[in-house]
Amino acid sequence: MLVKLPFRKLLIKSSTLILLFLTVSLYAQHTVSGTFSPAKDFSWLLVYKLNPIGETYILGAPIKNGAFSFVLPKAQSKGTYRIVYAVPQDEFNFDFLYNAEEDITLAFDKNAGVRFTTSQENILFQTYLKEIRDIEQEIIAYYTNQKTDKTLFLRLSAQLEKVQQTYEEKAKGRLVYDFIAANAPFIPKIEQSVERYLKNKKESYFSTVDFDNNTLQGSNFLIEKVLSYTFTSSELRSNSEFANQEEIKKNIVEISKKLTGVDQNFQMRVYLSLWNHSVSLWEDEVADYIYTTHLKDLAVSSGNGQIIEAIELHNRLRLGAVAPDISWEENNSTQQLHKLTHKGNYILVFWSSTCSHCLAELPKLHEALKAYPNMKVVAVGLEDDSENWKKEAAKLNQFTHAIALGKWESEYAKLYAIQQTPTYFILDSEKRITAKPEDYEKVLEILKQ
């Protein structure tokens, strides 16, 4: 396999004592330690500090027999930090609050998640979230079970209000206060129908949120809140259900109002998160809407062309998109992928005559396709010169061959973002991308279907 190579004396004056105390406090270092379970599944962790535009790498530390310990550097300020324990990093991580005043101990379980055993900030926040969630679940159960006990409803509402007030009071002067205050739930003062309750809950969703708050921006709190508002269905429906695309777009319009005047770099982070989530849900229409109405302009104004390139690459190679056109010379005439009239499906494969994996796999594919006459192969050779390519291509005489000189830097390698050979695409008769199999075995599985 050819892989494209990718581009851390006893009496002193009181004023002096105060200064000394402040200096020691300012530069104090604190330890974060704990356990991972099951121990055999974990060997290393990475630590990042979150900020309004992303994250900054801080350090790495080993996990030995399920235990870890690291000291945050003196220069690290209070804020939200992230521990990454596997790849992909966006999926396998958890966050913690660091106030630069306390050590932190925790226990992470693969199934149960993270539990803090030492840290007033984190224990307070974790306990608060559980109590709020438990009461809100009781309110949901009140509606789903179609209860009509007005006294019960008002009692639950009063409990919700008391929990919020109690924890805001406990959190005063702490880092966690901003999070608890911004998370204040909708508290109904009178019994109301489920439709009214959900409408009021949604309308008040951001009533206590300050999108300009730097502490909140430097965490994942606002992102998660925006994603939940935009995509998640009402609490009375399954978590796997989502509003239709037009409803989602309306929600994005409301988000854009909240973001008006907010730092553009943070706005871009929010919209990029919305775009990524849309893609993960296969909501291509929503993803395109986010890109064309918000994200592209923000990327242009901030000079972040990489985001534009990455999104446009995704768009042209996503499932359902018409494959970018390719042309080649054959029998003294120019041929084009888009002008092929084969009525069946296509396999578009990028290979190289100097790639050992290609030379092993493509003859097998050539032989296997004898049983699938409705499948046509277009093989694009990524080459430095044509001599060896001609020799190897001649052995695969049932394939249609094209050559792209310049190898990794060739037009078609860039157009299709080829990082290794062989790379396969499956196209339908209209040249729409229907699959992007990871390897030769996956290609055979698709053929058998």
What does this structure look like?
The protein has 449 residues and is of the alpha+beta class. Helices cover 42% and strands 21% of the residues. The protein has a 5-stranded mixed sheet. A 4-stranded mixed sheet has the order 5-2-8-9. A 4-stranded antiparallel sheet has the order 4-3-6-7. Helix 13 (387-394) links the parallel strand 13 and strand 14 (400-405). Helix 2 (120-144) runs antiparallel to helix 3 and helix 10 runs antiparallel to helix 11 (305-317). The longest helix has 25 residues, at 120-144. The two termini are 26 Å apart. Residues 5-27 and 234-243 have low confidence and may be disordered.
Strands side by side in the biggest sheet: 14-13-12-16-17
Number of alpha- plus pi-helical segments: 15
Radius of gyration: 28 Å
Portion in helices: 40-55%
Distance between the termini: 26 Å
Q: How many DSSP-defined strands?
A: 17
Task: Note the beta-strand portion.
Answer: 15-25%
Query: Which regions contain 5 or more consecutive residues with pLDDT less than 50?
Result: 5-27, 234-243
Overall 3D form = elongated
- Secondary structure class reads alpha+beta
| Largest sheet, strands/sense/barrel | 5 strands, mixed
Averaged pLDDT? 91
